[in-house]
């Protein structure tokens, strides 16, 4: 009895000590971490496994560029297969047990070309290296070793035709001629081209279907683009379609669609608060496995007991992190598992199902100590017209919602704008927090995942209620006492760059500085310089953003470049010269307008980049300049340095 009491006392003492240590550690401010540690290429990432489960591949740096490496599953030494030195490889996959394929563009132009290489480094071949042509992968045909189906816009830059490609020789055959309105092609589980999605009349969507490749496509469903049925893959008898739909509902839900009747046969799962946007299946078992949606974190609904059991097993061992299965072999005996959190880029693991063994493959960024990172907390506030706006607040380490007072703040609206911020490790947010800034991110109206009504509330509201949602978030943070109202900056990329310019133009007293990264400044020129393959969507963009002719008064009112005279605070602009989405002229116009007025504007252009900086050294330059810019204008103790 005495022994038990001593053990209990020691255990409680150790527990109390751990609590005190943890509390002390949590309240400590983080050391200043080198900028490069946040933005350098991962040590190893993007692990995949060969179909037979014998080899593992991954990205790793070679001369500061991410290249593809391969190793045997039980071997420590790896072979580098690619030699790219001008730009990171964008993505890759195993085409069969011997050959890998990868995509790469030139200088950020997003005209991706497809290349092939054997796992021993032999037979390196450019398969679709065609100037000004973009390659899409439609179906990698896992049961046909030497072929895959791709989409190319070489016949017409506005649309993509499907081709059957021999991945050894590069020979290809057109499978169908795009009549001019098809946006996506869908194959069945045998690799037959059986369905397509199209734009009809500019703002209507159509689903096309055929029973066999010998037949013509017929329209089986036609809807306005606001009411969507998005097919994901065929049912396992190849007769119907699994899809995600918001027809007759506000939130997207996974369904089974019957092409013969043209109707939804069954709603498989629904969430009353969030859109379901992910749907997964097991090819081996021929069963639907899970649906996913995002609340403040990623959530899953399981259809398969086996998949539910797998995630339960992984969470038992890795549960302090978010867990995701990112790849598996053909027999589903070996699984690549990724972990992450708001404070860590996490690690990759290999799970051997037959042995029930989980082993770590690699940490993604072992040089970062997650104990020095800041927590990303979910927040919500009400907009001025009564919408609930969800978002995230990251406070510098050592601060909490209770003790954070009068902090310098960087407001960081996301791009898209029809996208969303989500919980997880964000290197730029962690970098800013490490430099002493609170970072506010908000999913303003139009952000995806919150249903049709919330999305539609953004239509024709660029610079208006969408911007009000951002402003209301800033005022919420000021009212909380967390933000020093004299030390607030706004920074964003793409649409976030537009929101930055709009914030500084339409609410000039709110921000002490702004950083516009590949942002839109002129809604008229933006509409005229989109990539050619966006042109079939232009009528929808007119309805969502504005028609340059019919809505010219409003678009002039909400284009920051026409109101540059209202900007009072200093601005830093960064732009890729080859940006296909937001033309460099968008930044040139704003910089020129400000220089004419003598406003303090700093301009960085990278000639070998596109819509955002990909190359590591360019990221270093950008964030280094941004750090100095923010310190000069937001930090009291560094204002004169």
CATH topology of the domain at 374-638: Rossmann fold
Q: Number of helix segments?
A: 12
**What is the CATH level 1 assignment of the domain at 374-638?**
Alpha Beta
Annotated CATH architecture of the domain at 374-638:
3-Layer(aba) Sandwich
Number of strands: 35
* Computed Rg: 26 Å
Mean pLDDT: 93
Strand order of the largest sheet: 28-29-31-30-32-33-34-35
Question: Which range best describes the helical content: under 10%, 10-25%, 25-40%, 40-55%, 55-70% or over 70%?
Answer: 10-25%
**Unreliable residue stretches:** 1-25
Query: Structural class of the helix and strand makeup?
Result: alpha+beta
Strand content: 25-35%
Biggest sheet record: 8 strands, mixed
Q: Any idea what the CATH superfamily of the domain at 374-638 is called?
A: Alpha/Beta hydrolase fold, catalytic domain
Distance between the termini: 66 Å
Shape: globular
Describe this structure in words.
It is a single chain. This protein has 641 residues and is of the alpha+beta class. The strands form 8 sheets. It has an 8-stranded mixed β-sheet, sandwiched between helices. The termini are far apart. Residues 1-25 have low confidence and may be disordered.
List keywords for this structure.
641 residues; alpha+beta; Neuraminidase; Rossmann fold; eight-stranded mixed sheet; four-stranded antiparallel sheet; 12 helices; 35 strands; globular
Indicate the topology.
Layout: H1 2-27, H2 35-39, E1 45-49, E2 55-62, E3 65-72, E4 79-80, E5 91-94, E6 99-104, E7 113-118, E8 125-126, E9 135-139, E10 147-152, E11 161-166, E12 172-174, E13 182-187, E14 193-200, E15 204-209, E16 218-224, E17 229-234, E18 241-245, E19 253-258, E20 263-267, E21 276-282, E22 287-294, E23 298-302, H3 305-318, E24 322-328, E25 334-340, E26 347-352, E27 357-363, E28 376-382, E29 388-394, E30 407-411, H4 427-434, E31 438-443, H5 452-456, H6 465-479, E32 483-493, H7 495-506, E33 513-517, H8 523-528, H9 538-544, H10 552-557, E34 571-576, H11 584-597, E35 601-606, H12 616-634
Parallel strand pairs: 30-31, 30-32, 32-33, 33-34, 34-35
Antiparallel strand pairs: 1-2, 2-3, 3-4, 5-6, 6-7, 7-8, 9-10, 10-11, 11-12, 13-14, 14-15, 15-16, 17-18, 18-19, 19-20, 21-22, 22-23, 24-25, 25-26, 26-27, 28-29, 29-31
């Amino acid at each position: 009895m005495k022994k038990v009491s001593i053990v209990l006392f020691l255990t409680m003492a150790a527990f109390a000590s751990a609590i005190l240590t943890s509390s002390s550690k949590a309240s400590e401010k983080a050391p200043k971490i080198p900028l490069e540690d946040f933005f350098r290429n991962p040590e190893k990432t993007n692990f995949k496994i060969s179909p037979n489960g014998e080899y593992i591949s991954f990205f790793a740096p070679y001369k500061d560029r991410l290249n593809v490496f391969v190793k045997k599953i039980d071997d420590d030494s790896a072979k580098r297969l690619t030699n790219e030195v001008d730009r990171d490889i964008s993505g890759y996959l195993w085409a069969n047990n011997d050959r890998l394929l990868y995509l790469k563009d030139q200088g950020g132009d997003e005209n991706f070309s497809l290349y092939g290489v054997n796992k021993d480094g032999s037979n390196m071949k450019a398969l679709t290296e065609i100037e000004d042509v973009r390659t899409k992968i439609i179906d990698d045909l896992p049961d046909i070793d030497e072929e895959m189906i791709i989409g190319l816009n070489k016949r017409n830059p506005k649309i993509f035709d499907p081709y059957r490609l021999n991945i050894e020789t590069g020979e290809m055959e057109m499978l169908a001629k795009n009549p001019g309105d098809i946006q996506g092609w869908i194959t069945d589980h045998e690799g037959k081209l059986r369905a397509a999605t199209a734009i009809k009349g500019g703002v209507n969507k159509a689903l096309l279907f055929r029973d066999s490749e010998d037949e013509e496509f017929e329209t089986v469903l036609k809807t306005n683009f606001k009411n969507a049925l998005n097919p994901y893959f065929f049912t396992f008898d190849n007769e119907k379609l699994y899809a995600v739909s918001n027809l007759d509902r506000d939130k997207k839900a996974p369904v089974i669609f019957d092409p013969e009747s043209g109707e939804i046969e069954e709603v498989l799962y629904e969430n009353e608060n969030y859109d379901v946007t992910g749907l997964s299946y097991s090819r081996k078992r021929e069963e639907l496995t899970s649906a996913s949606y995002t609340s403040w974190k990623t959530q899953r609904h399981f259809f398969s007991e086996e998949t539910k059991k797998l995630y339960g097993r992984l969470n038992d061992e890795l549960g302090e992190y978010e867990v995701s299965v990112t790849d598996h072999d053909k027999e589903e005996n070996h699984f690549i598992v990724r972990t992450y959190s708001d404070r860590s880029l996490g690690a990759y693991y290999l799970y051997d199902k037959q042995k029930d063994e989980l082993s770590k493959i690699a940490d993604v960024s072992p040089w970062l100590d997650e104990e020095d990172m800041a927590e990303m907390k979910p927040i919500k506030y009400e907009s001025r017209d009564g919408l609930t706006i969800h978002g995230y607040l990251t406070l510098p380490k050592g601060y909490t919602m209770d003790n954070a007072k009068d902090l310098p703040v960087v407001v960081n609206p996301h791009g898209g704008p029809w996208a969303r911020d989500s919980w997880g490790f964000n290197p730029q947010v962690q970098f800013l927090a490490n430099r002493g800034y609170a970072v506010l991110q908000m999913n303003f109206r139009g952000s995806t995942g919150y249903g049709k009504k919330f999305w539609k509330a953004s239509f024709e509201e660029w610079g208006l209620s969408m911007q009000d949602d951002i402003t209301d978030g800033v005022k919420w943070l000021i009212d909380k006492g967390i933000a020093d109202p004299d030390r607030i900056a706004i920074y964003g990329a793409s649409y976030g760059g537009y929101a930055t310019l709009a914030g500084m133009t339409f609410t000039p007293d709110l921000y002490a500085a702004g950083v516009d990264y590949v942002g839109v400044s002129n809604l008229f020129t933006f509409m005229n310089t989109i990539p050619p393959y966006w042109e079939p969507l232009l009528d929808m963009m007119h309805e969502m953003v504005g028609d340059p002719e019919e809505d010219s008064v409003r678009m002039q009112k909400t284009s920051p470049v026409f109101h540059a005279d209202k900007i009072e605070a200093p601005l830093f602009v960064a732009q890729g010269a080859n940006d296909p989405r937001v033309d460099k002229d968008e930044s040139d116009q704003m910089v020129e307008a400000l220089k004419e007025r003598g406003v303090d504007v700093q301009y960085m252009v990278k000639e070998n980049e596109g819509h955002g900086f990909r190359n590591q050294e360019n990221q270093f330059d950008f964030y280094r300049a941004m750090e100095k810019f923010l310190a000069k204008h937001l930090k009291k103790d560094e204002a004169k340095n």
